[in-house]
Amino acid sequence: MISTRGRYALRVMMDLAEHNSGSYIPLKDIASRQEISKKYLEIIVKDMVAGGLISGLSGKGGGYKLCRNPEEYSVGEILELMEGPLSSVACLAESTNICPRKDTCRTLTMWTEFDNMVHDFFFGKKLTDLIR
Amino acid sequence: MISTRGRYALRVMMDLAEHNSGSYIPLKDIASRQEISKKYLEIIVKDMVAGGLISGLSGKGGGYKLCRNPEEYSVGEILELMEGPLSSVACLAESTNICPRKDTCRTLTMWTEFDNMVHDFFFGKKLTDLIR
DNA sequence: ATATTTACCTATTATGTCAATAGGTAAATA
DNA sequence: TATTTACCTATTGACATAATAGGTAAATAT
Fold first, then answer.
1. Are B116 and B5 in contact (CB under 8 A)?
2. Which domains can be identified in chain B, with CATH numbers?
């Protein structure tokens, strides 16, 4: 299930896309518009900067802004950055995580098929599709 | 992400389907074939009985067996019983959980569309599709 | 220069879930 | 009556979630 990390990140991205004037938007403004604790958003937004989704600038006139055009962001990349791999099962989440049952597993095909479907769905959806 | 509860339940169901002679199969046998802790399986299997997936009989000659033909079980109902609602977000998991933002939420359509896709996928897959 | 604004950093906390383990009771059969 | 089996209650360690708290560094306006 998608947690607040992913959901709030999407809302921050939508907020930034709607106020995409080129200047930086203070987190204070985003937090008050979205009615989310600013302190908690700080943690989330920090990861979004580290992940290359947005850029931050300190000081007066500072804040956050998008790094690219809104249509160039997929929902999938935002969710995956915040939530980790969008995998249905642990053994498909990381290549290092090798299951001893993988050669005989009767469900692996199903999980793989499912994960591909999920991937296509979320990476096909763009940030602009949400704003409409 | 699907936990051991759902994954182990699927394996128990597949095991029962493959040894579906009409008689009861002791959990001891299932646990040793599947190489899963019998003690842990007890918890899982108890919920499967309570949920009407399988029936249990105590005493000698007892154990567990399917209530229906294998092709009459969908993967979705097994997973949903063990994992709870297969919802992507909390506000779609239970009808009692009403979000104050539901009338203005820009992502609700996406989550609904996604959940429908997931539902169709897992309820379309039958237990017999896994055994093949 | 200095005050102000803002991002950024580290730490802590309460609550809950996951994946088990442990030991016992009740039921059914040989 | 002994044995086998399901079924029941309780506990545990590890981890994740959703925050809160207080401080530091950077950039700008005056």
1. no
2. 1-132 (1.10.10.10)
